[in-house]
Amino acid sequence: MNTPPAAADLNLCLCHSCGMACDFTDQPHECERCGAPLHRRKTNSLARTWAFMFTALAFYVPANLLPVMNTKMLGNGADSTIMSGVLEFWAAGAWDIALIIFIASIAVPGVKFVALTFLLMSVHRSSLWASKERSQLYRFVEVIGYWSMLDVIVVALVASLVKFKALADIEPRAGILFFGLVVVFTMLSAMSFDPRLIWDKKRENPQNEEVMDEVTSH
């Protein structure tokens, strides 16, 4: 069964700004339609993805250890971390809110770290295994990335709405800043990764891929 030609075989290059398929025969530097720089692959994709991910990991530790907000009720104040907030909601019977915060603030960043590490390692090893599934995993990482901002938005809204002076007051703490940085750098990491690298080795070794498909099918 003949495989369809790749964009590189047709000397085409997709513009990342406007999405136009540009003729790359003479290797133009800019898109004909929007003038954005053209490149067949994202520049230093793997190095930038590793750098952003390690930066996010460095911020992930203080984001979970430091308090994200301080709650004052009738003059008595208490700091809350992300995990302590989850436990308080769970103990109060609001298990649904606790589950949402846990998934958005702790599980989602963890899943992104594991998934991006797996994708990076597979590209470094020039793996031919499950290229389609790895591409789908990358799209999944992109989709769930935005939900990590939920905790930051909740703290910002609560802090702005609950202002009763002597009765009650909520103030953000340093932990929410670190958590926001985790979200930003994990999103930058996912944006820096070029999923086309997953398919490059398969295009270079189509026969090896066919052999692997036969082996896995038996």
TrEMBL record:
CC terms in the record's Gene Ontology section: plasma membrane
Major localisation: membrane
Pfam family for this entry, one: PqiA
Positions of transmembrane segments: 50-69, 89-122, 143-162, 174-193
Protein origin, superkingdom: Bacteria
Keywords, alphabetical: Cell inner membrane, Cell membrane, Membrane, Transmembrane, Transmembrane helix
InterPro entries the UniProt entry points to: PqiA-like, PqiA-PqiB_transport
Localization (cell): Cell inner membrane
PANTHER family cross-referenced by the UniProt entry: INTERMEMBRANE TRANSPORT PROTEIN PQIA, INTERMEMBRANE TRANSPORT PROTEIN PQIB-RELATED
Protein name: Paraquat-inducible protein A
Species of origin: Pseudomonas fluorescens
Name of the gene encoding the protein in the UniProt record: pqiA_1
